[in-house]
Amino acid sequence: MKLVVLGGDGFCGWPASLHLSNLGHDVLIADNLSRRSIDRELGTDSLTPISPIQTRIEAWEQISGRQLGYQHLDVAGDYGDLLQLLRRFEPDAVVHLAKLPSAPYSMKSARHKRQTVDNNLNATHNLLCAIVESGRDVHVVHLGSMGVYGYGDMGVDIPEGYLKVRIAGGDGRWVEREILHPTNPGSIYHVTKTQDELFFAYYNKNDELRITDLHQGIVWGTNIPETLCDERLINRFDYDGDYGTVLNRFLVQAAVGHPLTVHGTGGQTRAFIHIQDTVRCIALALDHPPAHGDRVRIFNQMTETHRIRDLAGMVAEITGAEISRLANPRVEAEENELSAQNRCLLELGLEPIRLSAALMREVTETAVRYRARCDFSKIPATSRWRQESPVRPSLSSDRARPGDLRVAR
Q1: N or C of the chain: less Cβ packing under 10 Å?
Q2: Is 402 domain-assigned?
Q3: Contact between 2 and 89 (Cβ < 8 Å)
């Protein structure tokens, strides 16, 4: 297939591009390198020394004999260039990862919230508009998030995208329908992912676009076999409080002698997937596109769930690291259960990589190798979900009088 990978220089996009190229697909990366710009903004860097995109592409051709195309493209801002790319390259499918993919980053300030919304929603809508205007039959594979569902205790498995409901009609009859599963996003980043769902549903219904939405869990690990072929191909490894995913952060903290930072009770349950399974799931989705006329296909792209404090305990047992309890900067339940179906990808042939001591040691070895590049000042998570006001109205049990302002405790 001819494939365009939007965001193909990022943490998931780069290994996905190499994996798809290695499978024999003709891959073109479109990226504005904004993730590298954000490193400069935050004053941080990948723990692993990632090469310039041109060096990466040249190294892959030398090692594999396969070419990767590249176009510097701002998908959210350069609609005309995006449209021309689709017309010129004529892809069979587009893998859409052109997002600012961090909940903490999206909550840093009003500017970051607006930046995340502007980029993420415009990128998705521009892509869908461009496909329609190009007149091409392009399958879109989008990397979404399990976080669109929130982390409440529903008492049932989260289905893959759709929920069967019964609605009482005015004449007493019950009407059965299947609707998109209700969302409950916990950050502005996750709000953009819920809006993506509506964009996809509309363009699927109105323009019959073929779309697969992969609701992914938290990614851990850093490399796949292709990125380990040469140091110039190594994948990025984020450990900072804005972009470092929780298990990777724990493993880096252990490697550099920093206590494992558990926020709140650590009772938050999250879904996880290894980076190698991420790229395999993308390939499986591309190999099994929805048929014309099918609704949006939604997969829960995760392989297991764990409580944060249990993960910290596992890492501490393996590495001997200490655990530090910190205040939780997020607005969320301190304890929750999470159970979700992932039957569809398993039926397509996914053989999940489970969390294991051996794999965690592999990631820790990478962290140890590059520990000199770690900036300890970037480890803490500083983004706060709610900006505290020094003075705000307080409604006590005996009810505050109008105009009675009290200092918020």
Answers
A1: C
A2: no
A3: yes
Alpha-carbon separation of residue 79 from 31, 73, 76, 98, 126 (angstroms): 13, 9, 7, 13, 6
Sign of CA dihedral 138, 17, 186, 106: negative
User: Which residues sit opposite 315 in a β-bridge?
Assistant: none
* Beta-strand relationship, 297-301 and 2-6: unpaired
Q: Tell me the β-bridge partners of 407.
A: 391
pTM: 0.93
Rg (CA), the chain: 22
Structure tokens at 46: 């990948």
Kindly give the pairing relationship between strand 26-31 and strand 68-72. parallel
Q: Note whether residue 229 is domain-resident.
A: yes
Q: What are the Cα distances from residue 395, in Å, to 211, 369, 392, 404, 408? A: 48, 54, 10, 9, 10
Cα–Cα distance measured from residue 110 to residue 124, given in angstroms and rounded to the nearest whole number: 21
Number of domains composing the chain: 1
CA dist 108 and 18 (Å) reads 32
- Which CATH number does the domain housing residue 278 bear? 3.40.50.720
The mean pLDDT value for 77-95 works out to 98
Strands 304-307 and 269-274: antiparallel
Q: Which residue segment(s) compose the domain that 346 sits in?
A: 2-374
CA distance 380 to 395: 34
Cβ-in-10-Å burial (0-12, 13-18, 19+) of 198 comes to exposed
pLDDT of 23-54, one tens digit each? 999 999 999 999 999 999 999 999 999 999 99
Task: Kindly report, residue by residue over 331-357, the tens digit of the pLDDT.
Answer: 999 999 888 999 999 999 999 999 888
